[in-house]
Amino acid sequence: MHPRFQRLLGSNGFSIGLELPLDNDWSSAGQRLRMAEGRPFGVPDLKQHAAMARLADKSGFRALWVRDVPIYDPNFGDAAQVFETFSYLGYLAGITENIMLGTAAVVLPMRQPWLTLKSANSVDELSEGRLLLGVASGDRPMELRNRLLMQCLGNLAQPSGALCPSRYFPARKNKTPTCIRR
């Protein structure tokens, strides 16, 4: 098992993480507050966001998970993640110290492969090796159009565990583990 998965799961093979944003209140009272503040549906109140992420880190949660929702689909029923995944993880890397940072999961058919790989490697370096990279084909009809990119990632992954051929990126001591879900 990759050392990061061992770190995530611990000696008992189980851990608890949090899916972000931490402060999106879907209750009736939360929705009334959102409307009173003029925030669109699904956009969280981030006033306490940094403090809550730090608290999760200091409280021993193993991972913060960020969903990748590239395009809002009003027919899907939720706004889900409102921030770009890798920018968000870069921010979280800067305000936390120990908690692992995961993508659940990056929607590859909506992304340019090389930029995705570079972004993932950047977050992994900025977080000092705390990135857990999950990738998928998407769960919304508009995300399922181009499955060829899933094959592209498979061709880029190397048996050594590296995300991409070394001729395109500097050699790295600790390789990022990648989870692929179809």
From TrEMBL:
<dbReference type="InterPro" id="IPR036661">
    <property type="entry name" value="Luciferase-like_sf"/>
</dbReference>
<feature type="domain" description="Luciferase-like">
    <location>
        <begin position="39"/>
        <end position="145"/>
    </location>
</feature>
<keyword id="KW-0503">Monooxygenase</keyword>
<keyword id="KW-0560">Oxidoreductase</keyword>
<dbReference type="Pfam" id="PF00296">
    <property type="entry name" value="Bac_luciferase"/>
</dbReference>
<dbReference type="GO" id="GO:0004497">
    <property type="term" value="F:monooxygenase activity"/>
</dbReference>
<protein>
    <submittedName>
        <fullName>Luciferase-type oxidoreductase, BA3436 family</fullName>
    </submittedName>
</protein>
<dbReference type="InterPro" id="IPR051260">
    <property type="entry name" value="Diverse_substr_monoxygenases"/>
</dbReference>
<keyword id="KW-0285">Flavoprotein</keyword>
<keyword id="KW-0288">FMN</keyword>
<dbReference type="GO" id="GO:0016705">
    <property type="term" value="F:oxidoreductase activity, acting on paired donors, with incorporation or reduction of molecular oxygen"/>
</dbReference>
<dbReference type="InterPro" id="IPR011251">
    <property type="entry name" value="Luciferase-like_dom"/>
</dbReference>
